[in-house]
Amino acid sequence: MSRLTVKLGDWELDNPIIPASGTFGFGYEFAKYYDLDLLGSMSLKGTTKDPRFGNPTPRIAECEMGLLNAIGLQNPGAHKVIEEELPKLRQVYHKKAIANISGFSVEDYAYTAALFDKEEDMGILEINISCPNVKHGGMAFGTDPQAAATVCRAVKEVTTKPVYMKLSPNVTDIVAIAKAVVEAGADGLVLINTLFGMRIDPRTGKPIVSTKMAGFSGPAIKPVALRMVYQVCQAVDVPVIGVGGIQNADDVLEFLSAGASAVQVGAQNLVDPWACPRIIEELPRKMDEYGIETLEEIIGRAQK
Questions:
Q1: Is 303 in contact with 44 (CB distance < 8 Å)?
Q2: Which of 116, 154, 189, 304 could hold 110 in an S-S bridge, CB 3.0 to 4.6 Å?
């Protein structure tokens, strides 16, 4: 094992840096910038059973210390992703990736998970439960422990791959959601997804984004994400991937100290396409500065 090696269950990563879903396309688009095999892994663009055009424009708004987005899970659908996008990725990336799966019913999640379960180069199924449950009034699956657990059980029944549930921060008690999905069989967790945010044009008094409210990501959410990772890692005993506002190696060390086993870099990829390799390069220097021999030794040290 190298100094940067980390483990997600039985899966060993060369380093803990993973581009987050929704900020890295299907991966191959970034091959023009650097060798993708430098990455620990990557989380692919969120995929649904059927193709989705997404929300009407405008669906992105910049804000201080962050970004609002309401893309609406635009994607070509699970079958086209597997038949057309994954072969392009395989030409430029030779490690296992993470499939990010979304759905609007329990059946949607199970169907799409079963498809990706057949793909050997998918190391983890990351289940995005921030989607509205269309059969039960539109409330997001991830805001109710019972609904989140139901999705987790359905996915576990159709896959042999590790299932990581991606949790929404837009809840009163994220620990309750985490415990529910772990009890339902989740192999790991990813947190956090975006917070709800809003921008209003001061000239017109109208919301800037077409959906009015949108997902808020970027550096401003880091303290919230870090706190939630810390709380969840105290409460459950499964690997956690920390996400939220990561810009540099110091941020990575904070998340690992809180208990995360790896991290995902999100909005920073949109600001700086070279963010991930730059952070990987920074890590050994920061470790030397702080007297850290290996990343594994610092995981969860803030809990002690």
A1: no
A2: 154
152 catalytically annotated: no
CB 243 within 8 A of CB 191: yes
* Mean pLDDT value across residues 280-302: 98
pLDDT digits (tens, 9 = 90+) for 132-170: 666 766 668 999 999 999 999 999 999 999 999 999 999
Q: Which of 131, 152, 233, 276 is catalytic?
A: 131
Question: Helix/strand/coil (H, E, C) string of the chain?
Answer: CCCCCEEECCEEECCCEEECCCCCCCCHHHHHCCCHHHCCCCECCCECCCCECCCCCCCEEEECCEEEECCCCCECCHHHHHHHHHHHHHCCCCCCEEEEECCCCHHHHHHHHHHHHCCCCEEEEEEECCCECHHHCCCEHHHCHHHHHHHHHHHHHHCCCCEEEECCCCCCCHHHHHHHHHHCCCCEEEECCCEEEECECCCCCCECCCCCEEEEECHHHHHHHHHHHHHHHHHCCCCEEEECCCCCHHHHHHHHHHCCCEEEECCHHHHCCCHHHHHHHHHHHHHHHHCCCCCHHHCCHHHC
